[in-house]
Amino acid sequence: MKYIDSHCHLGCGFDDIFAQARDAGILGCVLNATKYDDWANIMRIAKSNQNVCGAIGIHPMFVESVPLHWDNDMRTLLQDNPRLIVGEVGLDKTRENFSAQEKIFVRSLEIAIEYNRVINIHCVHAWDMMLKILKSYRTDLPKIVVHSFDGNTAAMRFDADLYFSYSPRIANPQFKRVQESLVMVPRNKILIESDNVNLTNVLKSAQSVLALRNDINADDIFNNSIGVFFNG
Questions:
Q1: Mean pLDDT throughout 96-112?
Q2: Whole-angstrom Cα distance, residue 77 to residue 118?
Q3: Cα–Cα distance for residue pair 22/100, rounded to 1 Å
Q4: pTM, two decimal places
């Protein structure tokens, strides 16, 4: 079996970690930034490995620490790097400064639309605002990957090109809504992720997804990932 990790993060010695992941059948990944200072390292890794899709963005946790020119820098990097996508960006009501989060998310979305890049979003207890924002851009939206999907039914019904990425928490029976959502998501919209610095954690996601959906196999999930992140 082979897999693509649709959402992972920087760790020490990432190049070595990716080599270990390949031995486990993880042939590629989407390496997401959480803060502005991650961007240069993510660019370096993505440029040196065609199986790594780099994603640049500002996580809701770090909206207070962005330089004034962050959006111009994002535009320049996307323009100069056609394989680069936008992420991790989003809204999180468990964190402070929600108005700052919203401002940065909206600008990131506008830039993703401008360059027609996939956007990898983070949404925690904020689907009301998230869907309101997405609806206002509905005719222009790019492909959207919902990172560590929480099972929100309104998101599954939303009329846009959304993909739902399941993290290892789908293996936890305490997240019943996440498990229940999986049976309602179209088979061509399912992705898996580690949400970690250790890519092999994606195997837990894969095993749980395949156990809960007997109408799909690992190749289906792999092909979904290739289609979204690596242009087929």
A1: 96
A2: 14
A3: 38
A4: 0.96
